[in-house]
Amino acid sequence: MAFTISSSPHDRAPLDTATLMRRVCYCLIPGIAAQWWFFGWGSLVQIMLAVATAYGAEALVLTLRGRRLQQLRDNSALLTAVLIGIALPPLAPWWLVVIGTGFAIIVAKQLYGGIGQNLFNPAMVAYVLLLVSFPLHMTSWLPPLELQLYPPTLADTVSAIFTGFTLDGFSPHQLRELADGTTMATPLDTLKTGFTQGHTGSEILANPVFGGLAGIGWQWVNLAYLAGGLLLLRLKLISWPIPVAIIGSLLLFSLLGFLMAPDGTASSMMHLLSGATMLGAFFIATDPVSAATTFRGRLIYGALIGLLIYLIRTFGGYPDAVAFAVLLANMTVPMIDALTKPTTYGAAR
Q1: Contact at 8 Å (CB) between 249 and 302?
Q2: What pLDDT digit, counting tens, does each position of 262-280 carry?
Q3: Torsion on CA atoms 38, 187, 127, 114, rounded to nearest 10
């Protein structure tokens, strides 16, 4: 008699790290495409440069540690590099992305023991290092292409990144100055500068950079990353508590702040659909190594990040705050996990 043997319904093949990281990169494509459409070729060039640097740095460290180079195939360096390339201004000089990516891989990842051992998100460690060390370069975002007088071509972009000047001899700073006759670089920059100068919210919103829901270009970039984040949830690559808690917390506190001071704070829509909000909520804060692990802990962790984003954007010195909020929340993860650890079955409560 022949018997047909099949696996039980709950028997699933585990998703290996390389596949997980690669699929997360795939889900980033809508946001990257939106950045390319509204801000030009720069982000794509920065991503490619960051990927080359990440693999080179990781291969070097693995060789020095006597580890097998097959570890490069886990695609963790790839994801870190893509996130760094996305976060940098499109025309940032080449050495900036090399320094940041090298630091992320060598110090923030490998010196902690490699994949799965890092306490902080490597991409955000690199971003904060560069922002603190090179603030001028890191805040040199150009306005959307439609607001620029001389939108850089692909050749101009490559030339500006590697030589500091476009083919016509313009530096990124000069391109920004030419555009700043009508607009600042980003909506959050414009708001922060306007409030500092004593302008009201209605006066600031008259700037051409504000259009639609939360600023020309940036609103669509955030919606694209939101679409990629929903795909992450659909594919079960991440769980919902962290992104939902971040968005809900940021929405709540920004709404309360706007109701109390409508002419002195940004609206909830501006907070949600400008800067790196959706990228941070779905692709950065959900890093399985540096994030909280318990269900209640993830809700607390996400709510804390949302609160920190609002506080730093509103009262701090930086217009966007996702990187600082995530790193500060990373510090609290051991305590959050300890306090929210579920009771072992059968143990006394």
Answers
A1: yes
A2: 777 888 888 899 888 999 9
A3: -70
